[in-house]
Amino acid sequence: MRIDCKHVWGHISAYIDGEVDAALRAEIDKHLETCEICSAVLDSTRNVVVLVADGRVFELPAGFSQRLHARLERELAGPS
Description:
Number of domains: 1
Structural class: mainly alpha
Number of strands: 0
Largest sheet: none
Distance between the termini: 43 Å
Order of helices and strands: HHHH
């Protein structure tokens, strides 16, 4: 089986958690040896997991929630 980047990205969380079977892990490992983009995605995802598990609380900038909700509404509404 030959996997591509989208396949790797779809399994990145299970890969980090050790929940992929040995054959798939071997294919992902082989892909990661030559793909800088997927290696960066893996490193970034691991960093996010570490930050989330850290448990610290960060204060959001004033008005962030309102801007986020407005942006989400625009995006969900689609093109004007």
